[in-house]
Amino acid sequence: MPDGAAPVLDVKGLKTVFRTRSGEVHAVNSVSFDLRPGELLGVVGESGSGKSVTMMSLIGLLPSPPAEVRRGQVLFDGIDLLSADDDTLRSIRGARIGFVFQDPMTSLNPVFTVGFQLMEPLRRHMGMSKARARARAAELLELVGIPDAASRLKDYPHQFSGGMRQRVMIAMALACDPEVLIADEPTTALDVTIQAQILELVKELRRKLGMAIIWITHDLGVIAGIADRVMVMYGGQVVEHAPVRELFENPQHPYTRALLETIPTVRGKRAPRLRVIEGQPPVLGAEPASCPFRPRCGHALDICARANPPRVPVGPAHDAACFWNPETGGPRDV
Amino acid sequence: MFDAGHARRPLVEVRGLKMHFPILAGVLRRRVGEVKAVDGVSFDILEGETLGLVGESGCGKSTCGRAILRLYDITEGAIRINGRDIARASHAELRKLRPTMQMVFQDPQASLNPRMTVAKIIAEPLDEHTTLSRREKMQRVHELMDAVGLSRDFANRFPHEFSGGQRQRIGIARALALNPQFIVCDEPIAALDVSIQAQVVNLLEDLQEQFGLTYLFISHDLSMVRHIADRVAVMYLGKVVELAPREPLYSAPLHPYTQALLSAVPEPDPSVRSTTERIILEGDVPSPANPPEGCNFSTRCPRVMDICRRQEPEFREVAAGHFVACHLCSPQPETTAGATAATQVSKSVQQGE
Lengths: 334, 353
Prior knowledge:
The complex is a heterodimer of chains A (334) and B (353).
Chain A: E1 9-20, E2 23-35, E3 40-44, H1 51-58, E4 67-76, E5 79-80, H2 86-92, E6 97-100, H3 104-107, H4 114-126, H5 130-143, H6 149-152, H7 162-174, E7 180-184, H8 192-209, E8 212-217, H9 220-226, E9 229-234, E10 237-243, H10 244-249, H11 254-262, E11 312-315, E12 318-320
Parallel strand pairs in A: 3-8, 3-9, 6-7, 7-8
Antiparallel strand pairs in A: 1-2, 1-4, 4-5, 9-10, 10-12, 11-12
Helix pairs in contact in A: 4-5, 5-7
Chain B: E1 10-25, E2 30-46, E3 50-54, H1 61-68, E4 76-81, E5 84-85, H2 91-97, E6 101-104, H3 118-129, H4 134-147, H5 164-176, E7 182-186, H6 194-211, E8 214-219, H7 222-228, E9 231-236, E10 239-245, H8 246-251, H9 256-264, H10 306-310, E11 316-319, E12 322-324, H11 339-352
Parallel strand pairs in B: 3-8, 3-9, 6-7, 7-8
Antiparallel strand pairs in B: 1-2, 1-4, 4-5, 9-10, 10-12, 11-12
């Protein structure tokens, strides 16, 4: 992947707040990242870490109220998506930025045929005629490996299995040749053998179509297999960000380190006891004034209670938001 | 019978268990077919061990766990827990047996009554099955809360005030209330976050040691099962296809389905991604209402032979404690098998053994 290429997506200082009856929840706090052409950026984090909300905020998919994107800038091809009007957004969403969500059953409309749903974006965004859209829809289903594609256009979502439905979702996201594909836990609801099929498919589609992908997951195994770069999120912030090998070989943030030690594997050595991250992930009622991981951190220093660590470079293309230095065991020189 | 060399006795014996659900259709609700959710499953669970039961969604692993506790009226087969017949016990008899066998459910949100306090939830089995006084019950509830790592201060709170991991602790405390010997854990960590899963698994291990519990641990998470289980059974479409002690099952799986399943688990290490060869299975699991003829896995098996489509493989012991149902592992070709199948069989035996 070209390292110096201009990013297709550039996110700066994104902040999203939910207003609820019991007060505000600061779901995303000052998240910045970029996405380069043709690369796959993995986003890892537990539920509530803000990974999905970040991506939904980018393209204005969050219902407002209760959500409010309070600060930040999202540059896509020179356009700031956060200040863009609805028409501009609509012409980008689904056309130039595609989406795949976790649960294919709830994101497909059960009362329309798969063919109709596939043809809709083609007709709307690409202005295709019905016949051309139908031919393209069949092509797309074939592309994602659905056998007998042309005749399956007449089928309804319930006539497909879970893995097949997820393939339909991917086909739909690819319909208008997007430059960016955002996939939110696209394989979490699937069985491992089906997940393996989908992962192979995505790798192949990347080779063929060369789009940039943001892949959200909580499964570090999936990330290790497909990502070029990884962003680890915790408490609504990016706590670590590095190329995939660097992250797995040289994790710097205590959360990333603990996460990597917590997961058992099916191969290699079996630890007699699982390592545990004690405590619960935080619910942020206010903008964090200290490190959100501090209550669960085994290496917390005095300063962690007083300030929220900024992201600092810790290696080649590698940054972490932490005051602790794993090499010295003391505070990091910033 | 299954582990002859082992000193431990089997606590749970399951033989030829079948659980078929009727498919009803039309105004008269006529029976037009059946879903063979569990179709002839046999295994033992030894006292004090954890048997992992793995498989993909719809393979019948949860139904199997529920059937063993007689939460369903089973279609066929024998179940003995601690020497007592469960399969044909009447409801009155079952009620007396319930305290020894308990269950931890997948979704702690759905399995806890939102209108009951934690103390009430944990004490409910005590209300049903014991004659303890109120003070004794409260004392027992506090003991149980200590055992699962919940603060006693939370006794009067409601389930919605807890996180997923804490709710699962409540469910575990309730399962422990009557000092059971055997607990079926049905996907107990599937609904939890990665960092919380380890907490609950460690708790289950501690409790097993402390109270000498026997677990049937049902899960689709192969890496977690490798961590917690002593022996592992792999289910596919209503049948156990392979059963073995943990290490041989993970390091040298014999059944092509087990091999494919294990190879599909993504490895959390980017440096191995180029070196390991994935077995990608084609297609989907067939419907349990209409399983294929012969071997259930024959429609997706990468090493399928002629005989697999005609004859169901026998579930047999191929090494000490290692059971597998596959024609590739038969020492002698069946009389009906063709010459090509026979050569493949002998080849695979050399590879497998």
